[in-house]
Amino acid sequence: MSNDNGQMQALAPTPPTGMGLMGMKLTPANMEMVAKQVTLQMVKVQMALAMPRDAATVQSELLRYCSNPDFARAAVYAKPVGVKKAYGLSARFAEAAMPVMRNLYEETTQIYDDAEKQTWRVLVGDLETNSSFSEEVFVNKRVWRKSKRRDQDPVQTRHNNDGEINYLYEATDDEVNTLRAALCSKVRRNLIIRHVPPDIRAKCLAQCLDIADRDDARDPDAARKQIVDSFLKIGIGADDLAAYLGHSIRSISPTELAELRGVYVVIRDGEATWSDLLAEKQIALADARKSGGLNKVKENVRRQQQNEGRGKAAPPPPTGDAPPTGSPPETKGTDTPPAQEGRRRASRRRNAEAPETTESAQTNPSPPGTTATKDEQQQSGDTSPVGDKPNDAKE
Length: 395
What we know:
Blueprint: H1 2-11, H2 28-50, H3 55-66, H4 69-74, E1 76-81, E2 84-89, H5 91-101, E3 104-113, E4 117-126, E5 131-140, E6 142-145, E7 156-159, E8 165-170, H6 173-195, H7 198-218, H8 220-233, H9 238-245, H10 254-268, H11 274-311, H12 337-363, H13 374-380, H14 391-394
Helix pairs in contact: 3-5, 3-7, 5-6, 7-8, 8-10
């Protein structure tokens, strides 16, 4: 083991005298600390290469976590995006995913500080792939308040959209630390989840939502009571929830129950405030009512147009030399010679039959004053009853 440590120290880069990382000047007091950090980082890389992660193991372990109803409720957050809701994996899921993923490391470093703000850099890296994601967080040391404090003078005042006066005060150390922790936790969650493969993220999110819905369907009353109690712990009562939903909490649907659970996770993790979420929800509800009324007007106009179209009279038949209904239309210049010859033969046949009928009627006339018998009527084609005479015979 001593030989390994000697090799590690030999492999560790030694910064030039008086110069440190990023070209910064180093004093003799902190040069030893920098050398220790470099050696520690190399040891981490060696351990990561010796024990690499397995994707199948990561997926099975995370899905096992998500099969727990309590973890499934806490692992998903929901934020209103217009009328719809955006669901995602929360900081609790990131806390469980980091040790399961193995060989991930996280660093939070303050890089700037003055009287008005702080700047922090959050970095999450993968020792196996030598990849890392980082993001900077800006923490304001001044906060806006709607009410005026008696023991502190405001730094600045302004009027909001409602005409009310807002006051800018110096934040206390506790307020700054709370805000910093919330912002860094949100960034850390996003960076850790970015290292999880996308297919595993999708499966975990779907299973968390499914497990929570099944547990709610098993006992809806207990699920409703549980969500109300959770909001009461953070100072939000049932009346506030009714104002958020637009109706009583007793008539809550499974979809709204899942939404409230995600909203609670967002507020618990400090990523949003109840007042902001309530304002966004009310704006979305107002837009939905407007769009719903507009859709009803459009539907009424469409139905009215359809009714007017049904009530119109049928168009009159075309006038002129149009052929009667049922007769084939005449085509000029498109007949073939066989078709023309067939029409000629039919015309000659009709002309030949017409004179024969006239001759038979002239050669067998009935004598005046006599009545044709029934047999004669059948032979001549006359179907009028016997004894009836035409008008010419009467005259």
